[in-house]
Amino acid sequence: MEYNNLSISSGSIAGVDDQVIKYDLYAPISGNTRGFPVILFAHGFKGFKDWGAFPDACEDLARYGFGVVGFNFSHNGIGNKRTEFDQLDVFAESTLTKDLQEIGLIIDAIQDGRISNPQAELNTDDIGIVGHSRGGHTAIAAAAEYESIKCLVTWAAVADYTERTTEAQRKDWEKNGFTEFKNSRTGQMMKLNKAFIDDLDANKDILVAITRVSDLVIPALFIHGRDDESVPYTDSEKLYIECGSKDKELRLIANAGHTFCVSHPFEEEHFPPQFEELVEFTGGWFRQFLR
């Protein structure tokens, strides 16, 4: 069944370090007394909930019969401007532990009714999560960490974030206390402080996806583009192999890069076939296993 009438509500909750997690909740309007299961959507590094086709994907997933919460990690660098990095000082303080903690805060807010929609009944006992790139890496850790998460999908997930750090970056962190990343879209140089790598090194057992994925017993789908230029599809192959769930699947999408053929801003009327396939795989998986 497809639900065509949706209600979209927005708000914010407190994040870590006195920062704010902003969210959009997409949900079908219905008298479904059992409530719609909830899916969390986690963006990646230098990403945000309003990037490209992400809002459209959240809407489409809601039409499958879910409440979908797209959110910004509080340290992603986006402040009052929905699509501009206007808080680079906050971005610099980002860590994977903070991201993981904030997924827990969002789950708490959903379950105690602080994230809700008066036009849609939500089943807050059944929560799924989908994450893109670094968000997929964190989604795996979250699925192992929080019992409320019953189903997982990753898009182009990083398998091991320790392998994403280079020797040059580590030298920068040691010498300068930060390293810099260039945002190819905006041209901004984005600092990331040494606390990031200190946190990752100190908490590998909790934070690293390839380690946590073996703990999973929930249904897990790993989707990757075969032509991913940023994170090789072999990362998802490794995650699939190491995943402890008996219900697991790997899907590789042909002729698809890291963002599955969409860019920001996304102004097309229809998804490209690769992104359409991505959303269909995702919606079908949640419909099968998240009830």
Give short descriptive properties of this protein.
two-stranded antiparallel ribbon; globular
Molecular structure report:
It is a single chain. Helix content is 32%, strand content 24%. By secondary structure, the protein is an alpha/beta fold. The chain has one domain (6-160, 206-289): Rossmann fold (3-Layer(aba) Sandwich). The strands form two sheets. An eight-stranded mixed β-sheet has the order 1-2-4-3-5-6-9-10, with helices on both faces. A two-stranded antiparallel ribbon has the order 7-8. Helix 3 (96-111) packs across helix 4 (134-145). The longest helix has 17 residues, at 273-289. The mean pLDDT is 96.
CATH homologous superfamily designation:
Alpha/Beta hydrolase fold, catalytic domain
Task: Tell me roughly what share of residues is in helical segments.
Answer: 25-40%
Numbering strands along the chain, what is their spatial order in the largest sheet? Answer: 1-2-4-3-5-6-9-10
Order of helices and strands: EEEHEHHEHEHEEHHHEHEH
Number of helices: 10
Structural class of the helices, strands and pairings? alpha/beta
The tally of domains stands at: 1
N→C terminal distance: 14 Å
Mean pLDDT: 96
Q: Unreliable segments (pLDDT under 50, ≥5 consecutive)?
A: none
Q: Tell me, briefly, the overall form.
A: globular
Sheet bearing the most strands, described?
Answer: 8 strands, mixed
CATH class: Alpha Beta
Named CATH topology = Rossmann fold
User: What is the alpha-carbon Rg in Å?
Assistant: 18 Å
What is the number of E strands?
10
What is the annotated CATH architecture?
3-Layer(aba) Sandwich
| Proportion of beta-strand residues | 15-25%
Oligomer: single chain
